[in-house]
Amino acid sequence: MESTTGRSNGGRPDGGSQGGRTFSRRWVLGAGATTLLTTGLTACGSGNGSGGSGGGTITAFVYGDDAVKVQQAAVDRFNKSAAAKDTGGKIKLERIPGSDYSPKLRTAMGSPSAPDVFFNWGGGSIKPYQEADKIVDLTDIIENDKVLKDGFLPSVLAAGDLGGRHYGIPMRGMQPVILFYNKAVFAEHKLQPPTSWDQLLDNNAKLKKAGITPFALGGSDIWPELMWLEYLVDRIGGEQVFRRIQDGDMQGWGDPAMLKAAELVKELVDDGAFGSKFTSVSYVNGGAPAVFAKGKAAMHLMGSWEYSTQLGKFPDFAKKDLGWAPFPSVEGGTGDLSNVVGNPTNYWSINSRTRNRDAAIAFLKECATQQYAKDLVANGDVPTTSNAALLLNNAPNPEFATFQYEMVEKATAFTLSWDQALGDELGTKMHTEIGKLFAGKHSPQQFVDACKGLK
């Protein structure tokens, strides 16, 4: 899921941190993936070697938003550390403006000025580099290093994998998709956040009878619709259903869980769960958040940035009446109820042609330190480190931060947003099919058949 990249699905703002800043950081965790790399890639910008300890300064590309101050502080600490001295290397952080990041990285990775370390979104965003053998497989390195192995929540570390192998180290905050609800509306109508699909449908009926739309949905952007399918497929068939597709088997769209999820979506749409005009409502321009905050819709399935979006636009609602809960179970489903979907985090990856691999790996360990986690919390993020729970009392909203962290900490699996896992080209085509399903232009079976043909 992404923001202002110019793709047909439209932008999607993060809304900033929990502290109420409203800069567009949603893009950071969901930017479009790079296209196929040019062939014949050779040297890394910091040297022409193929690994080892070459010494000197190595370059790290980072997405240049307001949150980059956390990474800059980490670079400053590392460059003064014993690890920098021991490896004979220092880090130079190169900030790339948001809208330029993906194209500049793609161009650089095909040139002699490629970065040694670079920020990315995991999954499909790095697949072209992995296929071209341009990034380091970190699996064995992590397994044999206690700091890296024990430093991060396993579900987040695995979420950005390719083929079950690690190619990145988590380096920013988590953003799971959460079922938000209006506490005032729920209290007035004596409702509880649904823990099962039947309870969700029962709530829907009571809300519609009271003239309230059950769910806000920015359907004109399409990506908010994707969240429904992600959770439904996971609850019905488990994380392995989409994992099969992510690993390249497009026939996985034919899994019974996929068809059942599409059928449940159609039932919700036909039943008016999203109202009658959701395809013309946008999240990006504030339409869906406003419908929710003003009590015209009782619930909103959205990424964790919804908190800061509401805090910025409707602060009284955010502070008093915004509630949050996990996605409910689906009767007969086999998916683990602890599973979450969304954008786990961002990652650092290492160029396989770096001349100082030891320095690069040592720098990545900085992301597992308590000071790094403290800096993330101070910036309004919820870290993905295994020790972060001890720090969340200092978050701008400790209750919400703790809910997010415990939700992800307990997760058996954290599925990366499908569009990010598949990459830009396939993700865009998938959005088109999802839009047709929600708009009633395709039946559930037509949706499944069309997705099986994506390539």
UniProtKB/TrEMBL annotation:
<feature type="compositionally biased region" description="Gly residues">
    <location>
        <begin position="8"/>
        <end position="19"/>
    </location>
</feature>
<dbReference type="InterPro" id="IPR050490">
    <property type="entry name" value="Bact_solute-bd_prot1"/>
</dbReference>
<dbReference type="InterPro" id="IPR006059">
    <property type="entry name" value="SBP"/>
</dbReference>
<protein>
    <submittedName>
        <fullName>Extracellular solute-binding protein</fullName>
    </submittedName>
</protein>
<dbReference type="Pfam" id="PF01547">
    <property type="entry name" value="SBP_bac_1"/>
</dbReference>
<feature type="region of interest" description="Disordered">
    <location>
        <begin position="1"/>
        <end position="22"/>
    </location>
</feature>
